[in-house]
Amino acid sequence: MKGSTLFASTLAAACTFRRSANAFNAFSPPLRKSPPVSDVESKMPMFEYLKFDKNPKFDVLAKTKEYVSGQTIGDLSEDWYADDYVLRGPVIGPIGRKDLAGSQNGLGLMGAFPDVTIETFGYAIDPENPYRCFYFQRWRATMTEDMDVYGTIYPSTGAEMETPVSTFCAVWNPDGRIAYEQVGAVVDRLEGNTQGKAAVFGLLHTAGLKLSAAPGDAVFSFIQRVGHFVGGQGRSWTKEEDIPKWWVSSSRGADATEEW
């Protein structure tokens, strides 16, 4: 009797597992052979534009490594960047070089966190755009000095920071200059001790600026727009007349992402 009961229980469990597997498979599309990457057209027009001629005459991965290495040692030469350069993060941008430099200089981050270490790894070329190179970063630092944010002083706390891993990418143009950078998109918000904030926002969080900043956050987006209108303390994005024509996204700062 016990053997029969055990067999019946096992058979029922197997049937349940099979039903669950079938239900999962119903939501898993069958694998199909992908078309050649050169034939794939991006749904978002500006990402199609950023493919340029799809035939770089230089080693994009090696050039990206050289660029990131230069950043680490403080090489911020403007020679790296195209005239129509744009940077975008989860809640920052589209922003050009001039406004980006002004915003960063007013934050006093490097003075407050002199021991910042950035672990960079996982370089990879986008299979649909040979001009685009992705990579990952994890930041660590200690707040050993006061931070001066546009005249407001945040006292040193001695707090140690570890950000979650985040993704970055650089898109080069055929002239070997960066046309577009995407920065600080968090991979796993549970990692680290900054409540899911990466890169610069992780530093600000550790210093005491615990901003509730996330894409689609209406309150933060409104605060950004007020700051953008008033000016004087850095910009979250560049003025409309100075944004390159190829940038067709209407989303600014923490605005929700539009659908194409």
Shape: globular
- Summarize the biggest pleated sheet: 6 strands, mixed
Helical stretch tally = 7
Query: So what's the oligomer here?
Result: single chain
Q: Bin the strand percentage.
A: 15-25%
Structural class: alpha+beta
Helix content: 25-40%
- Helix-strand sequence: HHHEHHEEEEEEEHH
> Strand tally, please?
8
Radius of gyration: 23 Å
How much is the average pLDDT?
A: 85
Which consecutive residue ranges, at least 5 long each, have pLDDT under 50? Answer: 1-17
Question: Which helices and strands occur, and which strands form pairs?
Answer:
Layout: H1 2-26, H2 45-49, H3 60-72, E1 81-88, H4 97-105, H5 109-112, E2 117-126, E3 129-142, E4 147-149, E5 152-154, E6 160-162, E7 166-172, E8 178-186, H6 199-207, H7 218-230
Parallel strand pairs: 1-8
Antiparallel strand pairs: 2-3, 3-6, 3-7, 4-5, 7-8
How would you sum up this structure, described in words?
The chain is an alpha+beta fold and 260 residues long. Helix content is 30%, strand content 22%. It has helices at 2-26, 45-49, 60-72, 97-105, 109-112, 199-207, 218-230, and strands at residues 81-88, 117-126, 129-142, 147-149, 152-154, 160-162, 166-172, 178-186. The relative contact order is 0.15. The model is unreliable at 1-17 (pLDDT under 50).
